Amino acid sequence: GNLFSVIVSDISMPGEMNGIELAKALRRIRPDLQIVLMTGYSEYLEEAKREFAVLQKPFDVAALKAQVQGFAGGAM
Fold first, then answer.
1. Nearest-5° Cα angle at 62, 56 to 67
2. Buried b vs exposed e over 24-63: b needs ≥16 C-beta within 10 Å?
């Protein structure tokens, strides 16, 4: 079975791949995977929002919990 059903990643990451590219690669492998991206940089917001759930920093734990519960239909 699958070890996880939700990925939470920052958009800005060290290295060659950013969080949007990571999310797209993961979706190719697991189309059912729920993905939440987070960023403090407004230039990435619109691109990320076209395909993924996005939390804009700063956010609190309640916002993250609500987003993940939304994927699970409220069960958590």
1. 65
2. eeeeeeeeeebbbbbbeeeebeeebeeebbbbbeeeeeee
Question: How would residue 5 be classed by pLDDT, with cut points 50, 70 and 90?
Answer: confident
Compute φ and ψ for 48, nearest 5 degrees: -65, -40
Residue 33's closest CA among 20, 24, 41, 42?
24
**Cβ(35)–Cβ(53) below 8 Å:** yes
Does the model's pTM come out above 0.90?
Answer: no
**Residue 9 CA neighbour count, 13 Å, CB half:** 21
Give the tens place of pLDDT for each residue, 24-58: 999 999 999 999 999 998 788 888 999 999 999 99
